[in-house]
Amino acid sequence: MKTAKITNVRKTGQFPSDFGGDDGNLHSQEVVLSDGTTGSANTKTPVPWYKIGDEVSYEITGEYNGTPKLKISKVGGFQGGGRPKYDSTGQTVGMAINNAVQLVCHGKIGFKALENTARRIVEIAKLLDKEFSPAPPAQTPAPEQKPSQAELPDNMEPVQPAQEPAQETEIEDDDVPF
Q: What is 2-74's CATH number, 2.40.10, 2.40.50, 1.10.540, 2.40.300?
């Protein structure tokens, strides 16, 4: 994006739009910038958030009837989705605290054991998450082609791959009263 100061803003019209503001319209503005760029920018309100003298970032996104279409934003402003990324740690800790509080409320543990119980629940959740998460794909070469049953001599059977025993996880529950 380029940066320039606004030297002139003039309303040139409005039109109905699903993306419009409270009045259901987009308002078209002719904007002149200090670097000589002139173009049209749409706003959701009749009076845009920017004014003469403001330094803005802009990009030309296309053209309409021979006039460049401008996308104007604040200098260094946030550009991107407004949703925070999913935080599984926060969810796990919240679940652990909630469950420990439930144990306190039902008289299963004392208030002093709340923090240690929540920490132990987090540990257990992490162990279970590790155990039940799919393994990342192995970076191994493609297996060599094994003969099909039809290609084997009559007196041979195909060998079945050995199954690995399930790994058991030791969980000490000396410090958890449930």
A: 2.40.50
